[in-house]
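Lecture notes, unit on protein representations.

Consider one protein chain, 497 amino acids long.
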Amino acid sequence: MLRIEHWIDGVGTAGVSTRTAPVFDPARGTVSAQVRLAEQADVDAAVAAATKAQTAWQQRSPLVRARVMFAMRELLNAHADELAAMISAEHGKVVADARGEVARGIEVVEFACGIPHLLKGEYSDGVATGVDAYSLRQPLGVVAGITPFNFPVMVPLWMHPIAIACGNAFVLKPSEQDPSTSLLIARLYQQAGLPDGVYNVVQGDRTAVEAVLDQPGIAAVSFVGSTPVARLVHQRASASGKRVQALGGAKNHAVVLPDADLDLAASEITGAAYGSAGQRCMAISVVVAVGASADGLVSRLASRAAAIRVGPGADPASEMGPLVNAAAADRVRGHLDRAGAQGATVVVDGRGGAVVGGESGFFVGPSLVDHVTLDADLYRQEVFGPVLAVVRVDTVDEAIELVNANPYGNGAAVFTASGAAARRFVREVSIGMVGVNVPIPVPMAFYSFGGWKDSLFGDTHVHGAEGVRFYTRAKAVTSRWPDDGVAHTGLHFPTAQ
């Protein structure tokens, strides 16, 4: 059986690890490979290689580093279909959705191509007699990323292109559930001219994660995952002196006002709720139907959910694929079981129905649940599956209060024909990313991605300008070149003269 290994110092390696875990084909429910699970010594080896390579890499001109990113962009475009097929095979999402993931990741590489401009400092001439002041940003050294299963290409690409372009070396710990794309990315970096050791991959489980968090040679950690784990990552990595950005879970709301175009809202929300089987941190999982919008909206959502074609991700006719594993499918079914028992109405039920070609796969169909209360499990917990909950309120004030009371603050959207209502919503919701008639407000690469409240631990978002700041540190320089041979040192505190 295929063994998926680590990538350290420019070569694939089994390392010292003897433990493995199965990698599944979610559409068939069968094991397709075994992935190595790193031990502490494997992480140490990756950090040692990264440390050695980074010393020389940070001395390379930002122009040279940008040229590697330009070459990487072309290679990613050339291999986009191969990457999409690998994502679909291990994650389960349909190939078209996987292609979209790759495209959004490439946008961050394109942003990193501008690193010579992004690293420019500031300069002030003559801040005192014969004295100039300027600032510059320098890399941290070796940094690491711990990334989730739901976007095995895009989320790592939020991190390592900017980190590497800034002059750091990178150690990636991808999800053990879909690890193969990380190795193809490694080979593409090598082809792009990146020196060996600047990008490394350690496969693994909790043992590898803890080794990364504790490793003294790693200066910063980027993480995306569930809120409980994000909180622990932030605490443990901070305790070992690391800079941390830890993105957690979400409960993204779409507020639909009575004046909204209900056909548009239903179509957009359907895609945002059920794309990738709901396994997106920016998936819409709650619709807040305001006033008279409710009945018409639920009717439209139900007809669209029932019409979605569910099947293997590699089948071009499929619109939605399976869940990533059996535990995820069981968890989603359990939420639907409890929803009815807790007083909600299951309008569209995805628990039944066989999928041709995937009878043993991890499939749960699109589900729509109406009249969900705020104390129900379906509302309080992150489902991370193809289940859309509908909560009904009477006014926009109630809707905004409901969104703000939720402990998550990743994304929210409002559907309305009123500019005044939209502006009010944007200004008043306590959310990191907001969409106006846009259901998945994922920012472009030249902005930054991140939530508020329990959706982010740390104060820096990923990619964009905040990504550059996260992977560098500022240095302020005060410079004087005396030419009169007279010493200017005194015991008083220096001031501008």
